[in-house]
Design a protein that fits this description.
Blueprint: E1 10-19, H1 25-28, E2 46-55, H2 67-75, E3 90-96, E4 101-103, E5 118-124, H3 125-130, E6 134-135
Parallel strand pairs: 4-6
Antiparallel strand pairs: 1-2, 3-4, 3-5
């Protein structure tokens, strides 16, 4: 058995490499001895067979899956993925009922809201949008 340079065992794989000898008569010894390229004769195509070394993978035990395990995987509902949409998270907002804009409580525009038009609420951003309010362009709630 031959060894590769890494020292691991190899198995024989055969690859065919075909080299076409048209116009390479000088390399294959064909044609006459003239140095004139016009006098060089083409030779028949040549096939070269070589062995390609393949390293063997270590053998592993096959994984056995029982029918019960397959049935369990196919019949149990998938676990819910916890992805909270930030627009649905409840938090504090300040509404301006006159301009129909909503703000974060610490927004610099909140002190300018007339107390008659100000409404403080705790709800989700999406709920405020559903009421027809638009987000402030300064605090981006």
């Amino acid at each position: 058995m031959s060894k590769s340079s890494s020292g691991k065992g190899i198995t024989g794989g055969i690859a065919l490499i075909a080299a076409i000898g048209i116009g390479v008569a000088a390399f294959s010894g064909g044609g006459d001895s003239s140095d004139d390229p016009a006098q060089t004769k083409a030779t028949e195509p040549t096939a070269i067979v070589t062995t390609v070394a393949e390293e063997t993978a270590p053998e592993t035990e096959p994984t056995v899956i029982t029918t019960e395990e397959i049935t369990t995987v196919l019949t149990e509902p998938p676990e819910p993925v916890e992805t909270q949409d930030p627009d649905l998270e409840e938090r504090d907002f300040v509404l301006n009922t006159s301009t129909m804009k909503f703000h974060k409580p610490d927004c610099n525009d909140v002190p300018e809201i007339d107390p008659v038009n100000r409404k403080d609420i705790h709800t989700s951003r999406q709920a405020v949008l559903d009421l027809g309010y638009v987000p402030c362009k300064h605090c981006y709630p």
